[in-house]
Fold this sequence. Notes:
Oligomer: single chain
Mean pLDDT: 78
Number of domains: 3
Amino acid sequence: MLFLFLLxxxxxxxxxxxxxxxxxxxxxxxxxxxxxxxxxADEGLKYLAYGRDSSFRNGRLRENKDEKCFPVNHFYVFSxxxxxxxxxxxxxxxxxxxxxxxxxxxxxxxxxSMPPLVCWAISDRNTGHILLTCGKVSGSDKLIQAVPAxxxxxxxxxxxxxxxxxxxxxxxxxxxxxxxIFLLGFILSLLWQWHYIxxxxxxxxxxxxxxxxxxxxxxxxxAILLNAVEDLMESNKDILTAREQLxxxxxxxRLIKMADMTDTLLMICGNSTPQFKCADLNVRQEMDMxxxxxxxxxxxxxxxxxxxxxAASACLDQVYFFYMVVNLVDNAIKYSGDHPCxxxxxxxxxxxxxxxxxxxxxxxxxxxxKRIFRAFYRMNTRCVRRTTGFGLGLTFVRKVVDxxxxxxxxxxxxxxxxxxxxxxxx
Length: 426
C-alpha cells in the first residue's frame, strides 16, 4: 500500500507540474502575441502617418465616404490581417526596433509579475533558422520557452522567448526527486528485508538439521555410555576397589556433564523453549548434589551454600534448576583464579525464590554485563582466553530464567568478584 501511495503521489506531482508548465507557456505566449501586435500597430501607425498612404495624415485615419476623421491612438484599429501586413513591411524594410520591442516585453512581464525574460528571437517557422535575436539563446534545462507567437502573413515567422524557470517548478522537481529517492529506498529496504528473511529461513533450516544430527550423533551415545557405567558400578560393587569405584564415579559425573552440555546446545541451536515440570523441591538436597559434583570435578574449589528456613522448599523444575545452578557455579570457579571461593545463598522475597551465586573472580566490566548472555559470546581478555568454554552456559541460564518469567541481575567489580542473582516467581 505504501509503495502504491508513493508511486501515485509521484505521478500526481509530475502531472501537476506538467499542467503548470503548459499553463505558463500558454500565458507567456499570449503575452508575446499581445505585446508584438501592440508594437507592430504602433509602428505601423507611425509608418503610415508620415505620408506613405494618402488615407493617413498626422495620426488620423480619413474615411473616403463621408470624410469623417477620428484619432488613431490604439492598435485595435488594425485588423489581424493588417497587423501581419505591417509586420511583413517592417521586416522587409529592416525597420523593426529591437530595443523598443525588448523594452515593451520586459515592462509587460514586470507588470504581470512574471519571471524575467532571458532572451527572445524571431525565427523562420519552416526552417527554424534564427532571423533576429535579442540576448543569448540557450537550451538550458533551467529555462522555459513560451508558446511561439505568429508573425507575418501566412505565419511565416515565430516570436519565441525563453524565461527563467520559476521557483515553483524547481520546487515541484525537488519534491518529485525526494519522492523518487524515498521510493527507491523503500524498494531497497523491501529487497533487503526479503534477503534477510530468506537468509534467516535458510539458517534456521541448517540449525534444525544440525540440532537433529547433533542429537543423533552425541546424545544417544552419551546415554548408552552413562547406562553402561551405572550398570557396571551397581553390578560389580562388591569386587571393585575404592580407586576403581572413584574412577567410575568420575566417569559418570563427566558423562552427566557432557549430557548437560549437549542438552544446552540443542536447546540453543533449536531455539526451543524448556518444558518445565514444577513440583515441591528439596533445595538443600539439590545443593548437596551440586557440592558433591564439584568435589569430584574440581576438588580445588571451595563451594558452600546457605539456605534460609523458608527457602528450604520451592516449586521448581528439578532438572533445569539443577543445571542452572551447575552452570552458574561452574562459571564462577572457571574465572576465579587458582583459589576459587564460591558461595550460594537462597532465600524467599515477596513470594519469589531468590538464589545468588557469588565468587572472588576477575569480575566483569560494566559494558560487558549485557553481552555475556549472548550465545557463543566470551570476553576478549587473557584470563578468559586461557579457560575452555563455548559461551553457552549463561545463555542457557538466561533462557531458563526467562521461561520461568523471572529475572537475573549481575553485580560485579573488576578484580574483586561477581554476583549473579536469580529471581524466580513461585
